[in-house]
TrEMBL record:
One matching Pfam family: BPD_transp_2
Entry-linked InterPro entries: ABC_transp_permease
Principal cellular location given in the protein's record: membrane
Signal listed as a keyword: no
Xref: CDD domains: TM_PBP1_transp_AraH_like
Taxonomic classification: Bacteria, Bacillati, Bacillota, Bacilli, Lactobacillales
Membrane topology designation: Multi-pass membrane protein
Record key words, sorted: Cell membrane, Membrane, Transmembrane, Transmembrane helix
Protein name: Ribose ABC transporter permease
Location within or outside the cell: Cell membrane
Keyword Cell membrane (UniProt): yes
Gene assigned in the entry: rbsC
Length: 328
């Protein structure tokens, strides 16, 4: 009788735990809905279709960076160089376009170069044994400095860029009424969703974040897998950079400054643990929408950009504290 009672108690605890996990997974979605409702009440123009499309276009850049950052944070790492990669690789592509290289080829080369820069981060961390925070902080400084050297501190713009249909289309075009950057973000989301949640690589990523030593013992090639994860982060940052230079019609040497914080915020708000091993890329998409809605809403309400930084910082602190409570 006692044994049966104990078994029922264990089953009940397991069920309760699953329910709590499901509810916690809905947290970011509920937060987005509440934020959207509050913004709409304070300024009904938030729901204007043009504003919503503009919101999604703005979210696309942070979303792409945050998707790559999700893989990194799932391993318990961090990548502070994403903003600098976003500045350097589009500057390279812009210079190539100005020199007469076909736009699509120039952008593809820039994205590949971004993957190589991400891979450099991975090698410094895996082969050099450097902590991800220190390694990416150092490369962030190097990449940012290289961008200023490469551009001589001046924006890169030219008639070749402005006259290129592909260049303009990527950042400012529409496809069936949907902004092209949004389509690029959604395609990237589905590809990375499959990679993370439906393929072996994703299981290896979670294993690294859960227990790296156990993952190594189980036969996972930790260094190779982790390096590829940073390659993904670099590629996504470069792709976001291509959209940005298309929107601005120029490559700005200071582009991407502070973008790493918005990306990290989106990942954390989406429910991914900074300790690694727990989180979903769908949550990151919701987190990016929360950050975008917050920015858009504060602009509509007329809140100063100085105060916006304070508000976003408070939101990040709340998300981190909630993450700590979940682990406790």
């Amino acid at each position: 009788m006692t044994s049966t009672s104990n078994e029922q108690k264990v089953v009940k605890e397991v069920k309760d735990k699953k329910i709590l996990q499901q509810l916690s997974g809905l947290g970011p979605v509920l937060a987005l809905i509440v934020l959207a409702l509050i913004t709409t009440v304070m300024n009904p123009s938030f729901l204007d279709p043009n504003n919503l499309l503009n919101l999604l276009r703005q979210v696309s850049i942070n979303g792409l960076i945050a998707f790559g950052m999700t893989f990194v944070i799932l391993t318990g790492g961090i990548d502070l160089s994403v903003g600098a990669i976003l500045a350097l690789t589009p500057a390279l592509s812009a210079m190539m376009i100005t020199s007469g290289v076909p736009t699509l080829i120039a952008m593809l080369i820039g994205i590949i170069f971004g993957g190589l820069l991400g891979g450099l981060n991975g090698l410094i961390i895996t082969k050099g044994g450097a902590a991800p925070f220190i390694a990416s902080l150092a490369t962030m400084t190097i990449f940012r400095g290289a961008t200023y050297v490469f551009t001589n501190g001046n924006p890169i713009t030219s008639k070749a860029m402005n006259n290129s249909f592909i260049f303009q289309f990527i950042g400012r075009g529409y496809f069936f009424g949907i902004p092209v950057p949004v389509i690029i973000m959604l395609i990237s989301f589905f590809i990375l969703y499959i990679l993370l949640h439906k393929m072996t690589f994703g299981r290896k990523t979670y294993a690294l974040g859960g227990n790296e030593k156990a993952a190594f013992v189980s036969g996972i090639k930790v260094k190779i897998t982790k390096t590829w994860i940073y390659v993904i982060s670099g590629i996504m940052s470069s792709a976001a950079g291509m959209i940005l230079i298309s929107r601005l019609s120029s490559a700005q040497p200071d582009a991407g400054t502070g973008f790493e914080m918005d990306a990290i915020a989106a990942v954390v708000l989406g429910g991914t643990s900074l300790a690694g091993g727990r989180g979903r890329i769908f949550g990151t998409l919701i987190g990016a929408l929360i950050i975008g809605t917050l920015n858009n809403g504060m602009n509509l309400i007329g809140i100063s950009s100085f105060y916006q930084q304070i508000v976003k910082g408070i939101v990040i602190i709340i998300a981190v504290l909630l993450d700590r409570r979940k682990k406790a």
